[in-house]
Specification:
CATH architecture of the largest domain: 3-Layer(aba) Sandwich
Number of domains: 2
Strand order of the largest sheet: 2-8-7-6-5-3-4
Strand content: 5-15%
CATH superfamily of the largest domain: Type I PLP-dependent aspartate aminotransferase-like (Major domain)
Radius of gyration: 21 Å
CATH class of the largest domain: Alpha Beta
Number of strands: 14
Order of helices and strands: HHEHHEHEHEHEHEEEHHHEEEHEEEHHH
CATH topology of the largest domain: Aspartate Aminotransferase, domain 2
Length: 408
């Protein structure tokens, strides 16, 4: 009754841990939710007001997205990348995740996934019957593939079409790709298609964000949306910017969109225009200030001879590797941490690491972002005192993890 490839799939790891955490809380347990990667911040008031104003919008909108919204996105991305992007290159979907799924269904070729990669890239390729290849990465390269490692894979069969997925800043590592230029040279040499997942790009702690689209725009699909910087994950609005050279692919995705979600919710599309047209600089700067300060606090307090960890560079994730623990898998280790300390984190095996590596993903978002944001200014230093006051679960969760590392 159910296809074999679907039978072997489980719930998305990030959504699953969120449900597990909520169920444990219903049982009366105090859980530190470091597992689910959801923005802690509110949707900016201007954008919420636009949603209220447009609640009456009830008509089906164009499959590719509302023209005015696509124009706003094209101008926004053009300024951000310093390149010329037209509204016709933009396609709007119910979250970038759904657009990625349609891309997997449309694309005829193999998928190249850096290890680690976001939890849904691999399952989507399985559903779409696309073969996937993991490329090992290392901390000295910020957990991104080297140009050589990509080339070694591609030259095994140069006749195939390849889709490389790059996510910077990265989920789960919290790192930023610094070798984009060398990767782009291989991309151009072998005509590799790239999906540049830039959902955390506005939350890069360094102001000088760099996209691979600046080096090989004709090969790169840009993916972004409202879920992370705008705090609107539940609104489900994302977009792709597709180069003119890949028009056939865009048209194929439009066909699939017409047969699946038809069009994104009209009120949300009208409201989203404000997200790209209006100035939200202060909101984003405050978000980054808080996330950077909290990320640095957790990093400084967890790193030790028993925990290998990289300082976060963007987004809201850390990827600690726990040493000297005798578990058979990272899943077993994370279950032990949840059982003994009430701290929910995700195993590295969900992100493409071998199960034997005691790597995990920690999302430092279990705090009231609205309250924190309303109590700081742009020049406020986010120190331990502020974190203790406005993000007490971060302090408590870090303490519990340190205690687990030291005592088991």
């Amino acid at each position: 009754m159910i296809k074999n490839k679907i039978k072997n799939l489980d719930l998305s790891a990030t959504l699953k841990i969120n449900e597990i955490s909520k169920n444990l809380e219903k049982e009366g347990k105090t859980i530190i939710k470091f597992g689910f990667g959801q923005s802690p911040f509110p949707v900016p008031d201007k954008i919420v007001d636009e949603l209220k104003k447009n609640a009456h919008q009830k008509s089906y909108l164009p499959i590719q997205g509302l023209q005015e919204l696509r124009k706003a996105i094209s101008i926004y991305e053009s300024k951000k990348k310093n390149i010329n992007i037209s509204p016709e290159q933009v396609i709007v979907g119910p979250g970038s995740k759904e657009l990625m799924f349609l891309l997997h269904i449309s694309f005829d070729g193999d998928i190249i996934l850096p290890s680690p990669s976001w939890v849904s890239y691999k399952p989507q390729s399985i559903i779409a019957d696309n073969k996937y290849h993991w490329i090992e990465t290392f901390p000295e390269n910020n957990w991104y593939p080297s140009a050589d490692s990509i080339e070694k894979l591609v030259i095994k069969n140069k006749k195939k079409n390849y889709l490389l997925i790059l996510n910077s800043p990265n989920n789960p590592s919290g790192q930023v790709c610094k070798n984009i230029k060398s990767i782009s040279q291989i991309v151009k040499k072998y005509k590799i298609m790239v999906l540049s997942d830039e959902i955390y790009s506005e939350l890069t702690f360094d102001e000088n964000y760099e996209s691979i689209s600046n080096f090989c725009p004709e090969n790169v699909i840009i993916s972004n949306g409202l879920s992370k910087w705008c705090g609107a994950g539940g609104w489900r609005l994302g977009y792709f910017v597709i180069p003119n050279e890949l028009n056939k692919l865009k048209n194929s995705m439009k066909v699939l969109a017409s047969e699946t979600f038809s069009a994104v919710s009209a009120p949300i599309q009208y409201a989203a225009i404000s997200a790209f047209k209006d100035d939200h600089k202060d909101f984003i700067l405050k978000s980054k200030k808080i996330l950077s300060g909290i990320g640095e606090y957790v990093y400084n307090n967890l790193k030790s001879n028993n925990v290998i960890i990289s300082k976060p560079m963007g987004g809201f994730y850390l990827m600690p590797e726990f040493l000297n623990k005798t578990f058979n898998s990272s899943t077993e280790m994370c279950k032990d941490i949840l059982k003994k300390k009430g701290v929910a984190i995700l195993p590295g095996s969900d992100f493409g690491f071998s199960a034997e590596k005691m790597i995990s993903r920690l999302s430092y978002t279990d705090f009231d972002g609205k309250n924190f944001m309303s109590n700081i200014n742009l020049d406020t230093k986010v120190d331990e005192g502020l974190i203790k006051k406005y993000a007490p679960k971060i302090i408590e969760g870090t303490k519990r993890l340190k205690d687990w590392v030291e005592k088991g």
